[in-house]
Design goal:
276 residues; Mitochondrial pyruvate carrier
Length: 276
Amino acid sequence: MEAIRNAIPETPVIVAGAVGGPSVMFAVTPFRNGLTLGATNTRAGAMELYGSVFARGLAGGWTGGIYPAIAGCPQFLCLGPAYHFYAAFVGTAGGVVLTSLTESGIVFGAETCNAQMAKNAKAPGSIKNVHNSMKPWGTGFSIHFARNVIATAGLRIFAQPCTWAVEKATGKSNAMTTLGGDFVGLRNVCAACLSAPVHQLYGFTVTTPELADLPSAERRARAVQFLKDQYLLPGTSRLSPVVPRDLFMRSMYVAVAYTMYSTLERTLVAKWPRSQ
């Protein structure tokens, strides 16, 4: 019982998850919707995709964002308090895996609903039966989980070494170098960039309804074909111009969302009144 009590996160960590989560996930909706549209459009550049997101006006950029925002509270309680709880028993790597699995169980339905609504906003009627935002399973769940493992690793494993690198390069250690380390750590190859193709594969999967009716072997073949079509020039093994586009867009989404959250969490922990 003592070990469990020690593993329960402090109040400011819980507050960061409960308050910051919904705010962050709603704020980055346009970035998320732009990625969704890019999963089925290899011709448009990043700015064109963001333009499509806001084609119906400023408010249109947040189409479907309410669902990930609602899920944002338990999601970020998972990323914060649940991670610290898991890590206390199974270590950092185990905490990352368990946190990612829990997170997918919480937000898969909401993010899938958001993605399909964004698709319908661009091409009305593309998806007739939008995924229930409360349904925590479906085609694409395993891809969603794999993406979360990479993103959570960026938040909990890679950010600190990047902070040390920034401090060494600048010769300073302050709030700005810490923020810089967070931003670099969350955008590096092992986090945002590696998760970009996985995220786009998830976006393709959940916005291509016919995949759900295919046998698993055919779904895998379609997934491999999607990655080839998206990231290789036709008939070659050379990378296509879509690669830097998706790396940029995924990096913007991950870096902004998780830097906002980690900064809020760190600030609350530092400033929260301590009982005497």
